[in-house]
Amino acid sequence: MTELARALEQPQFATERDPRLRLIIPIIVAIAFLMEQLDSTIITTAIPAIARSLDTTPVRLNLAITTYILTLAVFIPVSGWFADRFGARRVFALALLTFTLGSALCGMANSFGMLLAMRALQGLGGAMMTPVGRLILLRSFPRSGLITAMTYMTLPAIIGPVIGPLLGGLLTTYASWRWIFYVNVPFGLIGILAALRFVDDFHEEAVQRFDFAGFLMVGCGVTLLQFGLESIGRPIIPISATVLVLAAAVLLLVAFGRYARRVVAPAVDLTLFRFRSFWVGTLAGGLCRVGLNGVPFLLPLMLQVGFGMSPVTSGSLTFVGSFGALLMRPLLSSLLRRFGFKVVLIGSALVGSATVAGFVLMRADTPHWMIGSYVFLFGIVRSAQFMTSNTLSYADLPADKLSRATSLGGVLQQLSVSLGVSIAAMLLGLVAGETHVMTPERFHQVFLLTAVIPLISIPGFLYLRAEDGVQVSGHRRGGLRK
Q1: Does the first or last residue of the chain, that is N or C, have fewer Cβ atoms within 10 Å of its Cβ?
Q2: What global pTM score does this model have?
Q3: What is the C-alpha separation between 385 and 154, in angstroms, rounded?
Q4: Nearest-angstrom CA–CA distance, 332 and 338
Q5: What is the DSSP string of 4-69?
Q6: For the segment 158-203, what is each residue's pLDDT rounded down to a tens digit?
């Protein structure tokens, strides 16, 4: 047998060559995703303690959150190019090392400036970690196993924001705020060693020249957009300046859209939106996620500020939502096989909207078991929407588009998180008015307003056709039935 014949007989995917990797690779990537998602929320409950320790104010310390998110949003677009140029395994391990080092230095920070700088270093590592980890999953599994791979990718994104406030409160109360950063170090080191041992080093043979001009336009546009949204939720600059910042962001992104048509390999590949499954999963799905992503921000505030609960009690109740996410994971394949992407996405958007609106029924005297049960239900619905839209986004893409798709998908996913929080914060500020009194009734109004957002995504889901994502879902209906 010739060497060419042996190569053709060799399984293309790592998980086919070694069945153990069907579990090992998702666990490696899940560790990275969970660290990155936890870090977006775990700091919130520790802000007062950090402010006292570093001799600053809690309001000013919001920059520690903003710096991290901004760095993520700016550098995610270049992660795919780096993976193609230098190899996915190498870039993923380096990203883990950067994030882990940044975490350790955040814990050692002795000044406000040092904390901000190290949060930026964390964000740089996280920006490479998430999309390259997603790329590793996509290239390690055949299309028939994509649902399993994508659920491992999505679960940390769902669980991290839920358990972050609880874990942050526990570590700050019973240890030190510095441990919210130190806790990443052992997981990061394990992830680095495991990635170097088990992950294939995917890379492209021919890589286009890096589009530095496009990167600047997208990076500055996303940075200004994120900063403007943060300023709406937490006023940093005057309203007139915020409007100018948002206008500049839109102009830069529109300019990039025109520029990208004339460039062979732009920093962000906008031709991906020619694939219906991708734009429906990322844009329509992202819009739905904006409405659902406001809840992890609003609910702990309502429980603590509105109902007077302690941080630990509040965190314990919101944590229950992660169990709902775990329950949905094994059910998703069956749902997609029976109903298809279109029905599941529309159904989860409708039920998600109703579930967000249902939080208005909660009162300070509502039994804790009822609140926990409802949060559990919300976790199921939210995870169904997240997992389905994420899986659809990459279901029909050719292999040569995956690295750029994971970069663009990562940017849009990050923006859906920040938009969800910023819009919820903005609405809460508007309904509270000049009194700044956040009563339960004020929170109820915001829940009703945010419940409208998932409904706006439904027209996008209606564009799906029966054949979209079929090779992943296995759904057969009508003319597709053999």
Answers
A1: C
A2: 0.74
A3: 10
A4: 10
A5: HHHHHHS-SSHHHH-TTHHHHHHHHHHHHHHHHHHHHHTTGGGHHHHHHHTT--TTTTHHHHHHHH
A6: 666 667 777 877 887 788 889 989 989 998 999 999 999 888 877 6
